[in-house]
Amino acid sequence: MSTAINLGGFLRTRRSLLHPEDVALPDFGGQRRVAGLRREEIAQLAGVSVDYYTRMEQGRVPNPSGAVLDALARALQLDEDAARHLHRLARPQSATRHVPPPQARPQRVRPMLQRLLDDLVGTPALVMGRRMDILAWNTAACALFGDYAALDRAERNIARITFLDETSRELYAEWTSCARENVAYLHLDAGRHPEDPRLASLIGELSMKSEDFRRWWAEHPVQDKTSGTKRFHHPVVGDLELAYETLRPADDPEQALITYAAEPGSASHDALRMLLAWATEAPSPMPADDRAR
Fold this sequence. Notes:
Domain HTH cro/C1-type: 32-83
Structural class: alpha+beta
Radius of gyration: 21 Å
Organism: Streptomyces aquilus
GO molecular function, one term: DNA binding
CATH class of the largest domain: Alpha Beta
InterPro entries: Cro/C1-type_HTH (IPR001387), Lambda_DNA-bd_dom_sf (IPR010982), MLTR_LBD (IPR041413)
CATH architecture of the largest domain: 2-Layer Sandwich
Protein name: XRE family transcriptional regulator
């Protein structure tokens, strides 16, 4: 994945989303030949020349200053995640100076995260690694999402399951929102690791097999996975509304423990308890070779 191509696409897409009234610029009416703001308008807002900004979109500015990138982020009204992504795309060597190269061998879950999973008996939880790979899970997570142990290791990926497994469209009550979040997170990961061949392969596969993924990827969304609420249509217990939280070790942010919980006393809480009681009758433990070592 060329960072120059990604940078140009990102800038053009974000420019196309803005309108003169969004940035207090006069709109003299008439039909615009391009969607959103013109290059000269972004250059004006950022305090750079039109030629400089044009070369930025073309990926021909090898090392823009942090101040210029901050000015562009403000001009394009980027949020914190998108602004960091812009810095990574524009200055990949600087942004990844302290990031180790992608691992050749598959990631394995950290032993402490594995112990936490084992202790979270009543809470669906999984560990997400690089590229949204599913590194580990507990029985409650299988009850909620499906039997990860039945999948080949290469198939245990949140984005791949979301876009290529038709049952995910039935499970997530707001599938489009969940799927778009996955695209945005993969864009973030691509900015952090632009030379990762396995990530490029995943993005290529999803682009070929999913029209939705291909269309949303071209929009260049960027969003980290943090916390929020998801609604489910579960085939066993019906509707569920669960809050999720993402926890990352300070010394290894490439692994994240994601937990799901219902509001105490709610209908979803009762449904989740029923689901977990059903799951204990036929648990699906992790294969022995996938557990932490």
